[in-house]
Design brief:
- The protein is α/β, with parallel strands linked by helices and 495 residues long.
- The chain folds into two domains: 86-342, Rossmann fold; 349-490, Fungal kinase associated-1 domain (TATA-Binding Protein).
- Helix content is 33%, strand content 21%.
- The protein has helices at residues 3-12, 28-34, 57-72, 87-102, 128-137, 148-159, 189-192, 215-223, 254-257, 269-272, 277-292, 306-318, 374-387, 407-417, 475-490, and strands at 42-44, 50-52, 117-121, 140-145, 168-172, 180-182, 185-187, 241-246, 296-303, 323-331, 334-342, 349-350, 360-365, 392-395, 400-405, 420-421, 431-432, 438-439, 444-454, 457-465.
- The protein has a seven-stranded mixed β-sheet with strand order 5-4-3-8-9-11-10, with helices on both faces.
- The longest helix has 16 residues, at 57-72.
- It binds S-adenosylmethionine.
- S-adenosylmethionine binds at residues 83, 85, 121-124, 126, 128-129, 144-147, 150, 173, 227-228, 230, 247, 249, 270-272.
- Belongs to the methyltransferase superfamily. METTL16/RlmF family.
- This is U6 small nuclear RNA (adenine-(43)-N(6))-methyltransferase.
């Protein structure tokens, strides 16, 4: 990779401001001196910087073990070949869920208890999310999984930490052989019979052959989930949760999973691969969530491929969710996305679709971390709009991002991010909304500018252009949502 490209990637690296490692990344040298078992894995590069061999599973596992012990007082281990989590990375997802729970976008109606209760779909042998959520925030969890090794080791990891073990239940998901459906087509045991699938292998094991299907269904089958239940049939009738989270099996095949030779995070076939990949797995979570509705306040999942986000978002709206939120988890060279949705009625915000409330808006980003400057914020503005499908242009000499959104693009960001109550009059260009009313759109154009005030403080301004556009009333809401996103990314104190 060219140095320019590398620099740009590094600049984009963000870590949640409440993440323990946001200001203080793990100090390998210190850890090596405190934990002799870690010492053999640490080497020093010519410039004197300590590092580990990220392609050595034993090294990454020992790092995770000492980080969990040193920074979280957690005892932890996994057997060879199981997926080894990176602690700073996994903490970002926990803090994002924390943000969702504390926001008042949807009412706090589910939990009458003091304790937050979460459901970790596919907790793995490493049980990382329940361990972090319970130790950092006192949350209680049900962690589910399908494999015996995951269940055995997740339970071992819970029992090794008596101070939080009461907070975590590990639940085995039993295969439901009679209810494997592909878009309404019922498959019996012959399709999902696990005995026909080699469950033993790690990387390098052969991918099982496709189950035999009628040729016309074969291509569809690939893209749809078949396998053990995920939420429906695992969540009990009387159970309520504040959220669910999931790091899904991302890949469709082992070949695809094994493409990154730069790291050795382990991962058995069952952990990494699911027929149809993450798209099929998360689609099933969406379908299950539609049936479970208000049993969860927030449903969330990690998404490994940006190209799947759009598909999943449209699936969500097709399933009548009331709100969708997305985020980007960028750390080092890894980029993942988070998607969250709910069926609870959002707090209602009325917007005018014809008269802009304000043509100019601004806010300050204060107490920025040392390494975050105006360019980082500008890039975050660009990626926020790009992620939501709004064409925009970043001009790094004028420190501006120009956004111009068509009616469809505007519709998409508004639906993705904002619970809208449309009261606009019917018009020819209007489109139906969930409450039966209609909204008319035209082009929305605005400019976002970022100014350095004093070190650590930036002024972000938005100015509406083309004020007569019938959609210009959406400007202030879009700008506010962008503000929320930037604050969550950059500010330690988010007020
Ligand atoms: C990518 S791993 C994630 C493990 C861990 N949560 C982490 O973040 O490192 C996916 C996990 O989902 C599990 N899994 C696959 N299908 C499942 C299902 N239907 N219900 C529950 N867990 C499932 C796999 O066994 C595996 O442990």
């Amino acid at each position: 990779m060219g140095s320019k490209k590398r620099k740009r990637k590094e600049e984009r690296s963000t870590i949640h401001p409440r993440n323990k490692y946001s200001e203080n990344p793990p100090d390998f040298s210190q850890l090596a001196s405190l934990y002799p078992s870690f010492q053999p894995y640490v080497f020093y590069s010519p410039d004197g910087r300590p590092n580990i061999d990220w392609t050595d599973f034993n090294a990454t596992r020992e790092l995770t073990r000492v980080l969990l012990l040193h920074d979280h007082s957690l005892n932890w281990w996994i057997p060879d070949g199981q997926l080894c989590p990176t602690v700073p990375n996994r903490s970002n997802y926990i803090h994002w869920v924390e943000d969702l729970l504390s926001s008042d976008i949807i009412p706090h109606t589910i939990s009458t208890r003091d304790k937050v209760r979460g459901f970790d779909i596919g907790t793995g042998a490493n049980c990382i999310y329940p361990l972090l959520g319970a130790s950092l925030l006192g949350w209680s969890f049900v962690g589910s999984d399908v494999t015996d090794v995951a269940i055995e080791w997740a339970r071992k990891n819970v029992h090794s930490n008596p101070h939080i073990s009461d907070l975590i239940e590990i639940r085995k998901v039993e295969s439901n052989e009679n209810a494997v459906s592909v878009e309404g087509f019922q498959y019996g045991e012959s399709v999902c019979d696990e005995s026909k699938i080699d469950l033993g292998g790690n990387f390098g094991a052969e991918v099982p052959p496709e189950p035999s299907l009628p040729p016309d269904l074969r291509s569809n089958f690939n893209k749809n989930y078949y396998g053990p239940p995920i939420l429906l049939g695992v969540v009990r009738d009387d159970e309520k949760f504040d959220f669910c989270m999931c790091n899904p099996p991302f890949f469709e095949s082992l070949e695809e999973a094994g493409l990154n030779p730069k790291t050795a995070c382990g991962g058995s076939r069952e952990e990494m691969v699911c027929p149809g990949g993450e798209r099929a797995f998360i689609t099933r979570i969406i379908e299950d969530s539609a049936a479970l509705g208000h049993s969860f306040r927030w449903y969330t999942s990690m998404v490994g491929r940006k190209s799947n986000l759009k598909f999943l978002i449209s699936k969500l709206w097709a399933n009548a969710v009331t709100i969708v939120k997305t985020t980007e988890f960028v750390q080092g060279k890894t980029c993942r996305w988070g998607i969250a949705w709910s069926f609870l009625p959002p707090r209602q915000k009325k917007i005018s679709t014809s008269i802009p409330e304000k043509a100019n808006m601004s806010f300050m980003l204060e107490r920025l971390q040392r390494h975050h400057g105006a360019l980082h914020v500008l890039q975050a503005v660009e990626s926020y709009f790009t992620l939501h499908g709004l064409p925009c242009t970043l001009n790094s000499s004028s420190f501006t991002v120009d956004v111009e959104a068509s009616k469809d693009e505007c519709d998409s960001i508004l639906k993705n991010e904002l619970p809208l109550i449309h009261n606009g009059a019917q018009s020819e260009s209007g489109r139906d909304t969930s409450d039966g009313s209609s909204i008319s759109y035209d082009k929305l154009r605005f400019r976002v500018s970022v100014f350095q005030q004093i070190p650590g403080t930036l002024l972000v301004k938005g100015s509406l252009q083309g004020k007569s556009s019938p959609i210009s009333g959406a400007f202030s809401l879009i700008f506010q949502k962008m503000e929320e996103d930037l604050r969550s990314k950059f500010c330690i104190d988010k007020k």
